[in-house]
């Protein structure tokens, strides 16, 4: 049975939740292991046939550890079947939720030389009650500027789970064929 590694870079846990959903879809055809990008420093990627990398955005940027992981492993990633997905609140907008139109995915792809086989963009989640004072007010300001939800008492989940499901099935079909 093929082995798949799912590496995630998450700020508030929503990207991990998406990774777990993808794991549930693909684990019928592959042995799946999920690990945080911060835990990969001494991790052997060589034993995996497929690597899926998922990353969230905060204040317009990926975490530096994501770039470190890709730079350290880009030679090995080039020898594997790979997928990358990006999770961000701006993808809640129809004109920013595709591979071609999402500014954060395009910014990432311009910064790295790694070229994943499959790409996806998913809208994320705004969870005001869980944020600290600074994040709550900064994210609220960003949402106000971008005409998003600003009620600090609520959680707003924008993720299209059917799109996540389709991405998982695409991984099965294109990266892990029988």
From TrEMBL:
Span of domain Flavodoxin-like: 4-178
GO terms classed as biological process: protoporphyrinogen IX biosynthetic process
Cofactor(s) listed in the protein's UniProt record: FMN
Topology with respect to the bilayer: Peripheral membrane protein
PROSITE patterns (UniProt xref): FLAVODOXIN_LIKE (PS50902)
Membrane-crossing segments per the record: none
Pathway, per record: Porphyrin-containing compound metabolism; protoporphyrin-IX biosynthesis; protoporphyrin-IX from protoporphyrinogen-IX: step 1/1
Cellular compartments annotated: Cell membrane
EC category name: oxidoreductase
Gene3D superfamilies, per the entry: 3.40.50.360
Catalyzed reactions: protoporphyrinogen IX + 3 a menaquinone = protoporphyrin IX + 3 a menaquinol; protoporphyrinogen IX + 3 a ubiquinone = protoporphyrin IX + 3 a ubiquinol; protoporphyrinogen IX + 3 a quinone = protoporphyrin IX + 3 a quinol
Keywords: Cell membrane, Flavoprotein, FMN, Membrane, Nucleotide-binding, Oxidoreductase, Porphyrin biosynthesis
Cofactor note as given: Binds 1 FMN non-covalently per subunit.
Single GO MF annotation: FMN binding
GO cellular component assignments: plasma membrane
HAMAP family named in the record: HemG
Family recorded in the similarity comment: Belongs to the HemG family.
Role this protein plays: Catalyzes the 6-electron oxidation of protoporphyrinogen IX to form protoporphyrin IX; under anaerobic conditions uses menaquinone as an electron acceptor, under aerobic conditions uses ubiquinone as an electron acceptor.
Name this protein carries in UniProt: Protoporphyrinogen IX dehydrogenase [quinone]
